[in-house]
Fold this sequence. Notes:
It contains five helices and 13 strands.
Amino acid sequence: AAKAKLIDISQHLENARMVKTKYEINCIMEACKISGRVFSKVENDWKGMSEIEFKGLIEYETHRQGVQPSFPTIVAAGKNIAVPHHKPTNQKIKLPLLIDFGVRYENYVSDVTRTTGSKWQKPIEKILNELYETVRPDMRAKELDLFVRRALGKNEKLFITSLGHGIGIAVHERPWISKRSDDVIKTGMTFTIEPGIYTANGIRIENDFLMTEEGLKNL
């Protein structure tokens, strides 16, 4: 052992993890289905609650589904939406309301964000629908990020995060969907797309996708 030469293979492992097997895809799809059930159970139950109370309710419902949260749930209301990774407080909830949550199923994750009551809903959804139609295998990841920035126009300055990231056994893994990314989108990759307007009463919408030969599949 004293004479052993150590070789860093972490980059090779990251590359291997980017394209998912059928088993991995099925686990991520199931995590997304469970997230949908959690959201449908709690989406209208925030009235009278504080951010931290609603966080507790979301995670309680996650546990009732027999799974763990994939990361600490983000609940942000009103001015707090301006902070991308806001930590829930005792502030009483008033619309707009953003929740960012996920579940871990068989060690694979989902990562979903929904915003209710934001004036930015329609323009962001329009941009997303246009983007979804353009994504094809072998596109550079940075092209997706830059598409959204161009579409936002003067509001691009309020989009202070990257557009998305890979998901798998980690909540954030390759491919990186950012304007500085060198990654290329390949069939079998799973990743988020999550544009946001980071200002008081802003918005973030985040969905999880599988890249197929025909285009994006929303999980």
